[in-house]
Each structure stands twice: as C-alpha cells, then as structure tokens.
C-alpha cells in the first residue's frame, strides 16, 4: 500500500497516468478507507487500510494493480461507475484474449462493504462458467486525480507483472506505454518507505475507526 501511495504522489506531480502491477508472496488482507472494525473481528496479522474505499480483500492468489488517472484526463471526470466500467471492460477483454473464462457483472447490484471476493457489485469480473467473482476494485478521487486499486484472482503463471495479458490491458487504456526509469523506481521506493513509517505501518491509520470508537 505504501508503494501504491507513492505511485499516486508521483502521478500527482507529473500529471501523467501511472500504473503499478504486483503479486503477493504470502497471504495478506487489506480493507477500504472507511472500513469499521467490530470488537469481535480477529485478524492475524492485522489488515492494512487502503487509500481507496471498498471492502475487505484477502490477497495471495491475485494479481493486484494501482492505476492513477490525472485530472486532465477525460475519464477522470466521468462518474465513478463509468470509470469502474471502463477499467473493468478493458481488463475483461484482455483476460478473454488470454483464454480466461470471464465476464462482467452487468446487473444492478447493491454496494457492499463485505469481503470483496464474496460479494460482487456491478461491473465486477465473474467466472463465466461458475459465476464466482474473479476481480474487483475500489476508487478514490483526491487533488483531481483518481486512484483505482484492482485485484484479480488468477493462476500463478498469470500473476507476474510481465504477463502478456497485462500489456494488452494497458494498450487498451493508453496510446503509449513507457516503463519508469531506474532513478524513478528508486525514488518510488524511498517515498514508499516514508509512507510506510508515517501511515501504513501505524496503528492510528490501520485500526481507526472501530465500531466501539465511533
């Protein structure tokens, strides 16, 4: 989450759309910015609170990404549901080309703050054969930019950041794609260390608010 925040700050300065793909080497849990913990919830380790909204996400078997859209992009000025549909349509098309049995949930579904992969909402990704949820996301607008954090459950061979479907996905979102320079990557890592110590590794950030404190 610290690197995602650093990615957002980089895009805020450059005003260039930026995306980061990654996967997990151990199970982890994140929760949305507004998630409220009840006194009966027990976690080990404790979840990390995201910068974006949404529900509880159990990571470990998913490809995860953070997409930051600058304020002067037409899509950043769209309604949240339209942006969500735009991102997930591109994601679905790329995965279909890669042979994944996937479709979009187009039916009206109520918002949910429950476990993400248990409760699909409109324009989430579903397994077209079983109906199980494969992917979802959460967004937040800040300083005119939009951060979209997404997660898709895929086989291990498709979670690597250099997987061909990821390039197909990105090409459908942007006219040009350029990797970050090594100096920019190093700066991202340094910035992420700051965000980790000041925010994402702190009890104050991760544990507020509990239902007993509201």
How would you characterize the overall build of this protein?
This protein is an alpha+beta fold and 214 residues long. It has a single domain (2-207), classed as 2-Layer Sandwich (BirA Bifunctional Protein, domain 2), CATH 3.30.930. The chain contains five helices and nine strands; from the N terminus they run H-E-E-E-E-E-H-E-E-E-E-H-H-H. The protein has helices at residues 2-14, 80-97, 164-173, 182-200, 203-207, and strands spanning 18-22, 28-31, 48-49, 57-59, 62-69, 102-104, 125-127, 133-142, 145-153. The strands form two sheets. The chain has a six-stranded antiparallel β-sheet with strand order 1-5-9-8-7-6. A three-stranded mixed β-sheet has the order 3-2-4. The radius of gyration is 17 Å and the shape is globular. The relative contact order is 0.21.
Topology, element by element:
Elements: H1 2-14, E1 18-22, E2 28-31, E3 48-49, E4 57-59, E5 62-69, H2 80-97, E6 102-104, E7 125-127, E8 133-142, E9 145-153, H3 164-173, H4 182-200, H5 203-207
Parallel strand pairs: 2-3
Antiparallel strand pairs: 1-5, 2-4, 5-9, 6-7, 7-8, 8-9
Helix pairs in contact: 1-4, 2-3
């Amino acid at each position: 989450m610290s690197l995602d925040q650093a990615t957002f700050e980089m895009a805020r300065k450059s005003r260039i759309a930026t995306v980061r793909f990654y996967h997990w080497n151990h199970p982890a849990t994140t929760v949305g910015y507004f998630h409220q913990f009840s006194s009966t919830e027990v976690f080990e380790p404790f979840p990390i609170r995201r910068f974006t909204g949404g529900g509880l996400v159990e990571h470990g078997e998913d490809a995860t990404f953070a997409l930051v859209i600058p304020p002067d992009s037409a899509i950043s000025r769209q309604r949240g549901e339209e942006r969500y549909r735009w991102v997930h349509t591109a994601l679905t098309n790329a995965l279909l080309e890669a042979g994944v049995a996937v479709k979009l949930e187009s039916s009206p579904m109520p918002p949910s703050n429950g476990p993400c992969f248990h409760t699909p909402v409109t324009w989430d990704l579903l397994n077209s054969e079983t109906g199980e949820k494969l992917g979802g996301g959460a967004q937040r607008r800040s300083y005119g930019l939009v951060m979209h954090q997404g997660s898709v459950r895929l086989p291990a061979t498709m979670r690597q950041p250099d997987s061909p479907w990821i390039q197909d996905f990105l090409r459908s979102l942007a006219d040009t794609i350029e990797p970050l320079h090594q100096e920019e990557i190093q700066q991202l890592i340094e910035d992420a260390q700051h965000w980790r110590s000041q925010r994402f590794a702190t009890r104050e950030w991760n544990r507020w608010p509990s239902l007993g404190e509201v």
